[in-house]
User: What shape does this take?
Amino acid sequence: MKFDTVIIGGGLAGLACGIRLQNRGFKCAIVSAGQSALHFSSGSFDLLNELPDGTAVANPEEAVRSLDPKHPYAKIGDQFAFYAQEAKQLLLDSGVEVQGDSKQNSYRITPMGTTMPTWLTLADFTCLKNATDVIGKKILLVNIAGFLDFNTKFIADAFEGNGAACKIVSVSLPEFEKLRQSPTEMRSANIARILENENTLHALASRLNEQASSCDVIALPAVFGLSSPAPLQTLKRQIPTPVCIVPTMPPSVPGIRTQKRLRRVFELAGGFYMLGDSATTAETGDGKVYAISTVNHGDIALRANHFVLASGSFFSNGLWASMDGVREPVFGADVDFDPNRNNWYNASVFEPQRYRTFGVATDERFRIKINGKVQDNVYAIGSVLSGFDALQEGCGAGVSLLTALYVADQLKK
Assistant: This one.
């Protein structure tokens, strides 16, 4: 099987790169093992929230100038602002409605009710101006009876700590009774499927209107719109009180919807999305890669002019750690890591962890290296890269999107 480009990894980075290339006339295939980090998303895309030394970032476009040269953003260089705008536009063009600006971080509500800085937020959610902003003085905090992935007590404590007054209620509808029989079925995605029904939404709106007469805002869990934003829009039209959606613990309904939407856009543009398949080995030589093998295709190799590694970090098996070190399993790419295992971690879980900066070594164009030799046609993007701590710096989505588009623009048919 022959393609212009084969992308290994079907998450945010892989899909953004694939959409960009398909729109430029490339014939692309994405090999995706399964769920990506989007399924655990809280509904926002972070660009840069904090510098490695802990300095808070208000304006990402200014802050990137002080990053270490090994950081992926430093390799993008003066084009950072351009690709931040291109990334936002790609999401909008793909039907993923977002709000935000790379010149000024806003704040989002977390599943615990606290606030964190962010870049882009899905239109479902409310953007706050600062860390202590609240969504209303009197908040009706609502959960679906039996839904355990939305802790109203923690959320209420966080809201009240910023000056709000919360009233917690639990809503039960007959449509949820079957799910409630098993706690494993009472999950956000299953609830969202039930709430696709307009009659169920109308019944829920009636219950909420009965409770909300003296409240400024109704805060609900993000369990609406597995396929589109329509169910939430329908609900809001039936409730005169403003509605605020709060992220839940994973799985994330808005994240799943984003993943599904981006995949659909990629496939409608002519891309091949190979779900449930994993790359295993590569055919290399003379500083190039000629083909890869996958689990599902057996001895049928996937050949391409270019390969893009978007396989993620340890979480998604893009990197493997052992007592001897860290390795990248598909190409055997060189990995930047500390050979002294004692330096990999900090005893305090709340401190930066060194291992989170480990990743594939690349040149200034994000081409990988094998035994120190740059591979002319193989690139790495997203969280498989070295030189940044996505969790501490709050830049995981930004690195995925910006490196994906930057690399896509370098490839030639």
Q: What stands out?
A: The longest strand covers residues 302-309. The chain is about 25% helix and 25% strand. The mean pLDDT is 95.
